[in-house]
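A favour, since you know our structure tokens better than I do. What I am after is a single protein written out in full by you. Could you add the entry underneath, on a fresh line?


***
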Amino acid sequence: MQLITRCDALEGVLDKWREAIGSDFQAYKNHCYRVLNGAYAVLEAGNLASDEHLETIGFALGFHDLGIWSDVNFDYLEPSARRAELAMADMVWPDLRKQQVLSIIARHHQFTRINDDSLSEAVRQADWCDVSFGLMRGTIEKARWRQITKRFPNAGFHQLLIRKGGVHALKHPLNPLPMMRWR
């Protein structure tokens, strides 16, 4: 599989939110592309990859952590989903596809395997892989992950998570990681 270096659906979302994301833009963009490539690798291994899935995942990934910047909120799953829902209001995508986008956003930090939605599960595995520096790869092959991270370097993504997460944890010590989900 070749690396996905451009996804128009993802680029469209990122371009719209570039100013709000500000100096974190490259870090977030590279994170989105690492997760996109990881998720696509999972789908390919299961013979589930398609152009439509690539577009759906790319669109969802543009929004998946966006609430950090758009709503200045580290409890960002619901704000991110709301932004995606607003963006999809005028789209001609079928309702099922729109629901897939919202599922990907809502469930990408889920601890447990997602058995009822292959796209959300692929993104969940890839996001965990990225956040864990490749230690929790799921079904993503190690060599593949190295190739992805070489093309899309960290660019400060983990540092921004620590910085923004630390500020949130100081304000909300009883709920330091509000985006994490068991199911």
Notes: The mean pLDDT is 92.
